[in-house]
């Protein structure tokens, strides 16, 4: 079979460009007399990965000129106390965006916490109101990782190339699978969603011009399954041990075996991951703008 040159999609560079754009817009926003947009980040417990993500979110929020407000709560906090904090942040006129870092400890009802966030401050775009707005094509806040996936696809292929393309989303979470499928539909792709009960995953992958993998299973998708010339967006971030006993991050797609078959592929790390935080910053500014427009309306 003819091998093609596989292009690596540089998510780190795309994220840096998006954040620079957000920083410029924040400068304009404050120069025209508005308060600095503020993002409240709520972390519950001591999960090491969550701590790193939250630290990066806070650092990058400040770096683009916005205000970061951190709330670190103990792992054994009760649900009522967490809901009370969310209610306080909803009512605080100085807070534009609220983000509750996931996953939450097992004893907390995650759906209830997300449902308690004011949809207009829901910069993760996870509230049912924002999910409904996305499904109905209305303006709202869109989940960060899916938005990052769509931006990378548009930049790589162009909007016109998405029209009518067969896009396969693997995974159906509310954080990635479902919203990314909605965004692809909005970009006029023909969308299929595969999941744990899909009967013939390799066959579904073979039919796809675009594959968005978000299952959290290391190297589940073999390069040999791909349609030659496909574009692959790998959302998986799986920490595995190498035969030499070292820890390594890998995606849901076997990056090496996709070389020579895929036309474009995001690496892990350095692909979709950095876009998640860049989109969060863009969403926080958007929340400040939306709230101001709604207050004036
Ligand atoms: N409330 C939320 N919780 C979680 C989200 C989210 O969007 N909102 N997403 C993930 C975690 N996450 C941000 O919170 C996140 C994950 C990964 C990255 C990233 O940049 N990854 C790097 C690699 C990092 C590493 O070395 O470990 C990469 O892929 O290059 C950013 C943000 C779950 N929780
Ligand atoms: Mg739970």
Automatic annotation (TrEMBL):
It holds the Pfam family THF_DHG_CYH_C. Pathway: One-carbon metabolism; tetrahydrofolate interconversion. Its EC number is 1.5.1.5, 3.5.4.9. Keywords: Amino-acid biosynthesis, Histidine biosynthesis, Hydrolase, Methionine biosynthesis, Multifunctional enzyme, NADP, One-carbon metabolism, Oxidoreductase, Purine biosynthesis. The keyword Amino-acid biosynthesis applies. One of its GO terms (cellular component) is cytosol. Residues 143-290 form the Tetrahydrofolate dehydrogenase/cyclohydrolase NAD(P)-binding domain. Residues 9-124 form the Tetrahydrofolate dehydrogenase/cyclohydrolase catalytic domain. It comes from the Bacteria. CDD domains: NAD_bind_m-THF_DH_Cyclohyd. GO terms for biological process: L-histidine biosynthetic process; methionine biosynthetic process; purine nucleotide biosynthetic process; tetrahydrofolate interconversion. It catalyses: (6R)-5,10-methenyltetrahydrofolate + H2O = (6R)-10-formyltetrahydrofolate + H(+); (6R)-5,10-methylene-5,6,7,8-tetrahydrofolate + NADP(+) = (6R)-5,10-methenyltetrahydrofolate + NADPH. GO terms for molecular function: methenyltetrahydrofolate cyclohydrolase activity; methylenetetrahydrofolate dehydrogenase (NADP+) activity. NADP(+) binds at residues 171-173, 237. InterPro entries: Aminoacid_DH-like_N_sf, NAD(P)-bd_dom_sf, THF_DH/CycHdrlase, THF_DH/CycHdrlase_cat_dom, THF_DH/CycHdrlase_CS, THF_DH/CycHdrlase_NAD-bd_dom. Transmembrane segments: none annotated. Catalyzes the oxidation of 5,10-methylenetetrahydrofolate to 5,10-methenyltetrahydrofolate and then the hydrolysis of 5,10-methenyltetrahydrofolate to 10-formyltetrahydrofolate. Homodimer. Belongs to the tetrahydrofolate dehydrogenase/cyclohydrolase family. This is Bifunctional protein FolD. It comes from Endobacter medicaginis.
């Amino acid at each position: 079979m003819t091998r093609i040159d596989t292009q690596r999609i540089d998510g780190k560079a795309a994220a840096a460009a998006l954040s620079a754009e957000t920083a410029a817009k924040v400068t304009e926003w404050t120069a025209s007399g508005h308060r600095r947009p503020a993002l409240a980040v709520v972390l519950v417990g001591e999960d090491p990965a969550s701590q790193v993500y939250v630290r990066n979110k806070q650092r990058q929020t400040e770096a683009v000129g916005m205000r970061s407000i951190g709330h670190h709560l103990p792992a054994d906090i009760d649900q009522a106390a967490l809901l009370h904090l969310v209610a306080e942040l909803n009512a605080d006129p100085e807070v534009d965006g609220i983000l509750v870092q996931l996953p939450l400890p097992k004893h907390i009802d995650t759906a209830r916490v997300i449902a308690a966030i004011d949809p207009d401050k829901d910069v993760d775009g996870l509230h049912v109101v924002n999910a409904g707005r996305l499904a109905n094509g209305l303006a709202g806040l869109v989940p960060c990782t899916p938005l990052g996936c769509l931006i990378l696809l548009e930049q790589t292929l162009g909007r016109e190339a998405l029209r009518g393309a067969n896009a396969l989303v693997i995974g159906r979470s509310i954080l990635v699978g479902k919203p990314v499928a909605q965004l692809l539909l909005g970009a006029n792709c023909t969308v299929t969603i595969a999941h744990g009960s899909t009967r013939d995953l390799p066959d579904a992958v073979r039919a796809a011009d675009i594959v968005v993998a978000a299952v959290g299973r290391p190297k589940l998708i073999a390069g040999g399954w791909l349609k030659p010339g496909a574009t692959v967006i790998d959302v998986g971030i799986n920490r595995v041990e190498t035969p030499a006993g070292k820890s390594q991050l890998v995606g849901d797609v076997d990056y090496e075996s996709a070389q020579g078959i895929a036309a474009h592929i995001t690496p892990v790390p350095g692909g979709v991951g950095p876009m998640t935080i860049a989109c969060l910053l863009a969403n926080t500014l958007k929340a400040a703008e939306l709230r101001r427009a709604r207050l004036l309306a």
